[in-house]
């Protein structure tokens, strides 16, 4: 009997068109063919329609275009962080019982670092003993407005008393290790704090045992597809984009279980999980990327994460699942 072909949509950002991004889209398309899947590319700008009654023919047409797109496909891969438009698309998919990988709720959790840590903290409050997800002590910065700034920075002192120095300061939104800073003194912490006024950011414990090194585990479904060790001689961040180096890594069963558990806690289908070291074991969750790039890990390990993702989706689409 001829194998059923599936049709899917890969949603990407219309404005991230450099090779660093577009090559991943092509990898996913090629991997889809291996599993008898036709994958079409659409941008977030193709999904426009208003959240209201449709008073104009144009508004109704925009809505109909998205609904038609959903009807003609079996699934959606949402490879973007445009949450408002994505939620509208997901609502249309839900009506047609069309799965979206990853869900917009999970993408939003990973996009905002504080929301990531808060959800993992919630998991730890109700999980079974031994199923905890270790995360670093984290304190959210108090909100202010960009046109007001921090007119008083006395709040920084108790934060540093709780977390110690040096302290990591992270903007809640950022990728590739950017928007992450290390303050060695109170004065540096105050200076960074003032510079971030108006942006959501947080303060976090500095894991000195993991300075300049971490482990990236690519998780798909309930398994770790690939892993690499990242390290830097010159930076407390290990990201390859910032000049770090990489080498193959064989994760322990405990490290794999932690990465998979983290993905499950956040409601993800696939993700890149970054673990920090506590002595010799990578057992502390640093960050989770719902749309993790996989070229570097392929270069390092020879494992094509795109094929794991498409195999996972194919399996999820099978009638007996």
Apparent shape? globular
Indicate the structural class: alpha+beta
Strand order of the largest sheet: 11-10-9-12-13
Give the fraction of residues assigned to helices: 25-40%
Write the layout of secondary structure elements.
Blueprint: E1 6-12, H1 19-34, E2 37-43, H2 57-71, E3 75-78, H3 83-95, E4 100-101, H4 104-111, H5 113-126, E5 138-140, H6 156-163, E6 167-171, E7 180-183, H7 186-195, E8 201-205, E9 213-220, E10 223-231, E11 245-248, H8 253-265, E12 270-278, E13 281-289, H9 295-301, H10 305-317
Task: Kindly describe this structure.
- The structure is a single chain.
- Helix 3 (about 85-95) runs antiparallel to helix 4 and helix 4 packs across helix 5 (about 115-125).
- The chain has helices at about 20-35, 55-70, 85-95, 105-110, 115-125, 155-165, 185-195, 255-265, 295-300, 305-315; strands spanning about 5-10, 35-45, 75-80, 100, 140, 165-170, 180-185, 200-205, 215-220, 225-230, 245-250, 270-280, 280-290.
- The strands form three sheets. The protein has a five-stranded antiparallel sheet. A four-stranded parallel sheet has the order 2-1-3-4.
- The protein has three domains: about 5-100, Rossmann fold (3-Layer(aba) Sandwich), CATH 3.40.50; about 110-130 and about 210-310, D-amino Acid Aminotransferase, Chain A, domain 1; about 140-205, Dna Ligase, domain 1 (2-Layer Sandwich), CATH 3.30.1490.20.
- The chain contains ten helices and 13 strands.
- The relative contact order is 0.14.
- The two termini are about 20 Å apart.
- It is globular and about 60 Å long.
- It is an alpha+beta fold.
- About 35% of the residues lie in helices and about 25% in strands.
